[in-house]
Amino acid sequence: MAKTQRVIMLLLVAVLTAAMLAACGPANGNNANGTANTGSNEAGNDGNSNSGSEQQDAVDNPLAGKKIALVMQFNTGTFSAQYINGVKEQAEKLGGEVTVLASDNDIAKMASNLDQAVNQKFDGILIDHGNKDALQAGVQKALDNGIPVVAFDAAMEMEGVIDLQQDDQTMAQLTLEQMAQDVGEEGNYVKVWVAGFAPMERRQIAYEAFQEQYPNMQEIASFGNASNPLLDTQSQMEALLKKYPEGEIDAVWAAWDEFAKGASLAIQQAGRTEIKVYGIDMSDEDLQMIQDPSNPWIASAAVDPTDIGRVQVRYLYQKFNGDETPAQVILEPVYVSADNLPDEQISTNELSEYVEGWGSSEQGYTDWMKELE
């Protein structure tokens, strides 16, 4: 009897052992859920899946993952904010990532930021303002390292660099001409402008032509400071309003929207409704002021700042793709007048409904780029 029990126990052990081995199974057998076991663990399977997905993404978009540095001289005001949004929006659509390196209007810091972008091996560099004297060495270093560069309002004029700019002379002509017509080609005005910036120098060319064309238009004061421009302009304009009583100033021509804001605030607070302001550049904040019936700012010539950012990125991606690119790209402006705007407040996103040509630039937008998006 005892012998029989031992035999039964041995048989049970053998059966249990066989069952356990079958459950574990060979590497290429079935797992406990009945699905094929490839011999890889769960983490390994996920890794292979991600790798395959990334490889497929690279096939679908060979330009994905580009790291782009946006090196800015300054990022003051809503114009710059909308410009940055345009850069980021277009880059993200094409699979890129943007890092903004602002320089607080310190040209030496800007040169250092440019050098930093090269040393950190960004795939591409966008430049916003600055000047050739300060940035040439850094730009050349970027080019020597195979990093493409597209500059906005920096006038680099270097082989291999695309210079993007607004049609500054036309913008100045549009606003100056309208100012002269509105005051009957004879009157006193204040000029707010600052030297040392490529777009300002181009606007100055048109201003000098305006002075010759309208000798009865008299500049009674000229000033401008790029550091804290709004508050500085407001302060200086307040002093001029005290110096020149009502009837002695007909208009203000501001060569930058930050200048126009400051002058307009001073005039509005003083209640000097006889003075009109003409500016250059446009942002949502500017548009609100122009639409305000109590505000003296009545017109501006501009390119959509968001469009500027988009176009700059498009030409950088043309560089990435090996396309043949122009040395210079000029953005055509539009004229925005309070007379053409609705009573209800709108944003620059809606401005195209009232101003033809606003926010619809297709410059640099290739067919392959649209497909890539």
Which shape, going by the Cα principal axes? globular
Which consecutive residue ranges, at least 5 long each, have pLDDT under 50? Answer: 1-51
Largest sheet: 6 strands, parallel
| Lateral arrangement of strands in the main beta sheet | 2-1-3-4-5-11
Structural class of the helices, strands and pairings?
alpha/beta
Helix content: 40-55%
N- to C-terminal distance: 83 Å
Strand segment count:
12
% residues in beta strands: 15-25%
Topology:
Blueprint: H1 2-24, H2 42-60, E1 67-72, H3 77-93, E2 97-102, H4 107-119, E3 124-128, H5 132-144, E4 149-152, E5 161-166, H6 168-182, E6 187-192, H7 198-213, E7 217-223, H8 229-243, E8 251-254, H9 257-270, E9 276-280, H10 284-291, E10 297-302, H11 305-321, E11 328-331, E12 334-337, H12 367-372
Helix pairs in contact: 3-11, 4-5, 6-7, 8-9
What report would you give on this structure?
The chain has 373 residues and is α/β, with parallel strands linked by helices. The protein has 2 domains: 67-166 and 305-332 and 362-372, Response regulator (Rossmann fold, 3-Layer(aba) Sandwich); 168-302, Rossmann fold. It is built from 12 helices and 12 strands. It has helices spanning 2-24, 42-60, 77-93, 107-119, 132-144, 168-182, 198-213, 229-243, 257-270, 284-291, 305-321, 367-372, and strands spanning 67-72, 97-102, 124-128, 149-152, 161-166, 187-192, 217-223, 251-254, 276-280, 297-302, 328-331, 334-337. It has a 6-stranded parallel β-sheet with strand order 2-1-3-4-5-11, with helices on both faces. A 6-stranded mixed β-sheet has the order 7-6-8-9-10-12, sandwiched between helices. β6 (187-192), α7 (198-213) and β7 (217-223) form a beta-alpha-beta unit. α3 (77-93) packs parallel to α11. The radius of gyration is 32 Å and the shape is globular. The protein starts with a helix and ends with a helix. The model is unreliable at 1-51 (pLDDT under 50).
